[in-house]
Prior knowledge:
206 residues, 2 strands, mainly alpha
Amino acid sequence: MLLQQYKPTRSQLLQLRRTRRMAERGHRLLKLKRDALIVEFFRVLDRAKTLRSNLAEKYKVAEQRLVIARAIEGSLGVRSAALASREVPTLDLKTKNVMGIIVPKIDAKSVRKKLEDRGYGVITTSARIDEAAEAYEALVEDIVVAAEIETTMRRLIEEIEKVKRRVNALEYRVIPELKATEAFIRQRLEEMERDNFMRLKRFKAT
């Protein structure tokens, strides 16, 4: 309890009242922030669910096209085409602000390539190689987006938990203790006033 920290004076009572009002205002703001973070989390979660479904479908398509390419070109032909790429994809890591939380923003470059930029001979390879390459390029792009979304979700969960702990601390410990201490000081002041009144009354009677 906070009773021992305060003397039963009017100035302490006013200070305590201001502290309690600040705590209540902070509690309201933190609850609003928590609710907004939860709404944002579910918005990102819906996007993540959709993306995961798309990833599974794109992976299946990419695997099927790779199997067909291997059947036509052979494993060596597919490997040679894969190693012929001249331009390696790069990731540009930045940050963005989501509800006051810094989350990563990943820009993938040179993932999707034009036919002539893949490095292998167009004439010496079949269209099945092109189809497999296109499918995997699309898959990699979505994987990069998924990584960004998953990280954003983790950061949101961490922030929600942090805000929830603060809300609970204010609601169940700090504010009740401040109210109890405020009531205790108010009661002591009333008792002191009654005592002073009785002493004054006795003094006048003598």
